[in-house]
Amino acid sequence: MQILLYILKRILQTIPLLIIVSLISFFIIRLSPVDPLAELRLNPSVSKETLQKETERLGLDKPIIVQYGKWAKSFVKGDLGVTSNGEQVSTKLKERIPNTLLLTVVVIFLSWVVGIPLGVLAAVNWKSSFDRILTVLTSVGMAIPSFFFAVLLLIFAVKTGWFPVGGLTSSNFMEMSFVQKILDITHHLILPVTVLFTLSLAGLQRQMRGNLLDVLDSDYVKFARAKGVSEGKVIFKHALRNAVNPLITLLGFEFAGLLSGAALTEYVFQYPGLGRLILEAVLRSDINLVMASLMMGAIMLVVGNLIADILLIITDPRIRQGVQA
Amino acid sequence: MYVILVLIFVLIFFKACIKSDVEDSIKPVLRSKDYLVENFYPYSQKNVTINGVDYLQSQAPIGKFGGTFISSTIGEGPKTFNPFNSKDNISSLMSDIMYDGLLTTDVVTGEPRPKLAKDFSVNGNEYIVHLRRGIKWSDGMPITADDVVFTWQNIILDGFGNTSIRDSIVIDGKLPTVQKIDDYTVKFVTPKPFAPFIRMLSSPIAPKHFFGPAVSRGKAYFEGFLSTNTDPEKFVTSGAFRLKEYVPAQRVVFERNPNYYVINKDDKKLPYLDKFIYLIVGDVNNQVLKFEGGELDEISLQGANVARFKEMEKHSDFKVYNLGPDTGTMYIAMNMNNRKDDKGKFYVNPKKQVWFQDKNFRQAVDYAIDRKNMVLNIANGLGEPLFTPETLNSIFLNKKITGHDKNIEKSKELLLKSGFNWDRAGHLIDRFGNHVEFDLYTNAGNTEREAIGVMVKQDLEDLGMKVNFKPIEFNSLVNKLMATMDWDMVIMGFTGSPLEPNGGKNVWLSDGTLHIFNQRLEKDLNSKRYPFENRLDYLYTQGALATSFEARKKFYDEYQEIVYDEKPLIYIYSPIRIAALRNKFKNIFPTSLGGLTHNIEEIYIEDEK
Do B245 and A157 touch (CB under 8 A)? Predict the structure, then answer.
């Protein structure tokens, strides 16, 4: 019951937050000197009448506050509006969301499945040569800029011919059998996943190692060891449970990054995801599309944090008591 | 120790990346025009009638059926597949593949040539078009005069979709009329003889049975009709290909239209290719990588890539083609605006107005610019100096204007004539003693224009002018040019048409929406014109009303002379278009007007052995 009340309170708190985020974003986009019709204006074959019609269609002839009101009203109703090309924003997003989710889910899954055990192993074998090699490798992983790494991998793909140069599917994808389709997508995913995985693995492994080292150094672990509890039990039963808490908060942020975290890599690899769509939308000041993606990002962040908090309540009795009190 | 291991790993990785690249430090040299392969299209297509069907017969060598051609577009991909709604190049390109017009343009001479029409005749302001009998839409329905009348009357003239065609054929406030004479004959009548109208007959023709229901549901519905979310199965087309699949941000796949009306010399229906694919790529770098990786069959090349590809050509499976001068133009404009804004403030500082409105000053700038040097260093020798608003491959180009080299002495002479002088430090001062200093803008991110800007700045500083070169963001620049008009000098470019100068009327008519060097806002439309502006207005209006090519050319020749003399826009150079294409494709006859794949239905793939 208390938990439900807590969730409700948190949801109510997000409403003013979202309003503020939307106001700021809307005004920044509209007040910037970016003219959505600039391309048309510089085209000698576009007539005055066409320009006038476009201005009216995009609502640019009205004051900003009226434009915002119109947008907010339809947003609350669940209508995201149309893009500057007249397509439904929701369909446009729906096309791209699965692709981005595919990429980020694979990356998050891989980095957790590999990163956590590696962190634990490194902490347990502290100062061994295994730990040191990992430390150097993760340093490289954290230091290398994802953009640069992605470009390097692309050149690698061109020169060796082992991997496709960007994209998600081959041009004859429609004629493939189901198994071939899966293989084709996997083939295309390897390089972008490598880039994102390297980055996220390095951070996660280090976090896990650090947390576990802290906990292993604490008094109750020493006590457990002194009591004669087996080493495996000490680590997995006592230490790990305590060390994993900060990672749950991290998971909340990863959730928020599900739809927006990979924009740069998507762009380099010409991956048909949300990041590329939004970047292009920002460049031509496509307000409805940009607003929809910004709001989506904000909501995902709020929800991610909420999930993390709830998970923490479940795993950590100390916080549970805090909520109840 | 571990650091060394990792370094070795990284080095091995880098080594793998530089396997077989070519030396790319080739110095640019001004190349002669025959440096790259250039063929001419020798095979005009003929009308033939078989079993009562009027086919168009290709005269090119007979090829093999099958295969795929993969090209690419840069950017976001098509925004609509409705040929009447397209406002951007990529959408237009896609609809051109799917929909043929009544006429097309001869890729060698630039003359109008029948396409969907069997033949046509022009008599003053009357245009009679005969259609082919027995040809069909991709769904098997016949193509008749009803479709043509529907397209013109109910879509174009009634103002559905993008109204640019309609806007360009309004003559004295009146529109042309269209009338069905019989099932295979249509008559168009323009209110006055109007030469550019014939080019408009190459606009796509829509199938009435398919577009009709959408048109009857009104303009708002039509805006979203055949959007990119439409099921490809539904498309009914007349062109060589029909839509098969559209994957957002990845590719557009076309398959051959089994009912296409062009046949080969064996009387088999073309096109040879089964599929025609456009990959949607985000930027030029990715496009080049994709071509090198073998994922693309065709690519257009720019700048340093040309030399690199030319080197690679020797041991690769592609050839580099010269497609002649680009249809775009690049120019320097000075703000000749002499009006005040709402607050009574001059758009252009009056001190600077004296310079920019002085013909001698503009000519001095023109003589100071070293075009050859720019072609050499910026376009890697692949371009030609440009002196006229018509592009070098335009059929209306005034060949008498030969231009000139850089001539600093001449510049100084012109400046002295207008009372300019130099102070002891060598700075240019005008006759009121003001130092000549102004801002030069261009859009940031366009590396070519930025490079030109740097060289123009240097050239003008030879004359003692102080130039503040400021590349700014494209949108902000357009706002400056079109709305606030607080700029001095700018480097910009326009797209042009090698066939129809009237397309530039928004630039050259003094009340045009793109009259960039002296932009008039709504409230200033009746302000005083410069004498040469009045003359250009006259020439442009008359040039469109005259009908014979020779009569029109006289008007357009004079307009080019005036622009060359008055220098409202100083043209810089015209880059040459270069493209690379894999050798396995045959029947390739690139021309300057048609590009590389104008005869896409005749192109076939030879077996690789």
Answer: no
